[in-house]
Amino acid sequence: xxxxxxxxxxxxxxxxxxxxxCQDYLARIQTRNPELNAFITVDPExxxxxxxxxxxxxxxxxxxxxxxxxxxxxxxxxxxxxxxTCGSKMLSNFVSPYDAHVIEQFKAAxxxxxGKTNMDEFAMGxxxxxxxxxxxxNPWDTSRVPGGSSGGSAACVAGGLAPAATGxxxxxxxxQPAALTGIxxxxxxxxxxxxxxxxxxxxxxDQGGPMARTAEDCALLLNVMAGFDPRDSTxxxxxxxxxxxxxxxxxxxxxxxxxxxxxxxxxxxxxxxADTARAVEDAIAQLKGLGAETVEVGLPNSxxxxxxxxxxxxxxxxxxxxxxxxxxxxxxxxxxxxxxDMYEKTRAEGFGAEVKRRIMIGTYVLxxxxxxAYYIQAQRLRxxxxxxxxxxxxxxxxxxxxxxxxxxxKLGEKADxxxxxxxxxxxxxxxxxxxxxxxxxxxxxxxxxxPIGMQLIGNYFSEAKMLGVAHQYQLATDxxxxxxxxxxxxxxxx
Length: 494
Ligand code: GLN
Hints:
Blueprint: H1 4-12, H2 18-36, E1 39-41, H3 44-59, E2 71-74, H4 101-109, E3 113-117, H5 151-158, E4 165-168, H6 175-181, E5 184-187, E6 208-212, H7 215-225, E7 260-264, H8 265-269, H9 274-289, E8 293-297, H10 305-320, H11 339-350, H12 353-365, H13 371-392, E9 398-402, H14 418-422, H15 429-434, E10 438-445, E11 451-458, H16 463-476
Helix pairs in contact: 2-3, 5-6, 7-16, 10-12, 10-13
The structure holds glutamine.
C-alpha cells in the first residue's frame, strides 16, 4: 500500500524520483479516470515540471520529508495557472491568478500537484452528483456514489489515482466521502487551516483538511496545511504544532490505557444501518482491548443540527455567491439586453439546481420578515449544540460514533430527494456548527463489501490526540489497508 509516508521513504532512499512517481500516477489517472471522473483537470506538463523541481531540490540537499510526494487538490482551492472551477459552470473558464494559502504551503513543501479533483458544485452536496462536470463514481462499486462534496478527492485516493488529496468540510464533506470510500479524512478545528483562496461556501463552517489512507498520513499532511495566515480573518494565531507527536506507539499491549471515549447516546439510538452499528460496536470493543474506557455522553441538541445547518449554511452561501455576477470573472451569458438582464441570465445559466435552491433558502431566511424566526433561532441552536459538546468533553477525551448512517448509495438514488440527501450528514454537521475537529476512518465492510467509516470527534485543538487514537486503531486493525479490486497499483513503484 502506498502511503505518503512510504513514498517519502522511497524518495529519501533514492529508489524512485518524484518524476517517476508522478509519471506512474498520471498513467493511472489516464487509464482509470475516464470511468471514475475523479479529476476535473489534469495537466501532466505542469505536474512533471513541479516534480523535476522537487527532484532538483532533493539533489541539492534541500528536500523536506514530503518533497517530491505527489498530491491531488480539490477544485475549490485556487491554484495559480490551474483551471479552478469549484465544480460549477460559473467558474468553468476561471484560471486562478493566485494560490490559496493551502496550495502555497504544499508548494513550499515541494509536493507536486497531480490535478484538480471533482466535487459537488460549490461544495453543496453529499454524493458528488451536483457537479457541472458529472458525477464521480465510487471505486468500490462504480454504480454507487463516492459521497460528497469532496468525492473526487476521496475516489482518487481510494482508487489509487493519488496517494492523498485535500478536501474541505462545511457539514461533512471530508468525513462522509472518506467513510463511503474506505479512506481516512480529517476536518481540523475551525481556524486551524486558512480559508484564503478556498472558494467560500459557508464561511463560518468551511474548513480544509487532508484525505489519505492512514491517520499517520493525515498528521503529516496537516503539518503542511495548518498555520496562521493573516489573510484569513478567522485564521488562528497559535504556535506551530507537530500533529505527529502522539503517533509514537506506547510500548505494551494497552497503548490507550487511561483514554476515555464518549459514546453519545443520541448517535446510537436510531438511524444507523445494522451493518454500520455492528462495525462501530466492533471498533469500540477493539479500542477497549487497547486499554480505552467508554462513557455514555449526551448531545441532546444534535438532532436539531441538520435543521440549523440548512438555515445557516444557505444564508452564508447566498451572500458569498453574490460575487458571481458575470462582471469580474467567470461565466457571462453570451447575449443580454442590459445590465439586469446580464446578471439574471448569467446566474440562471451559470448555477445548477442545488446551488439555486440554497441561494433561495438563504435569501429567504435573511429577509426582513423572517430573519428573527429563522436565522436568529438557528444561531441560538448553534450555541446549544456547541454547549452540548463542551459538557460532554468534561467526561471524555474523544467522542466516537458512526460517520454516515449508511454505506455508499446508488447513483441517482437520492438525487430527487434533497431532504434524504441532507440527512447523509446527520452525524457530521454538529461538529462543524461547534467548530470542533473530527475525522473518519475505516472500521469494516457491509454485506455488499462496501466500506464503513467511524467518526472520532475531538475537543478544540485536540487533533494530535485524535490522530494518536486513530493511529493505534490502525496499528491493531487492517480495515484501512483493504483496496477495491480495481486499484491494484502495479504501475506504481513500491
Ligand atoms: N452535504 C452538506 C451540504 O450539502 C455538506 C457539504 C460540505 O461539507 N461542503 O451542504
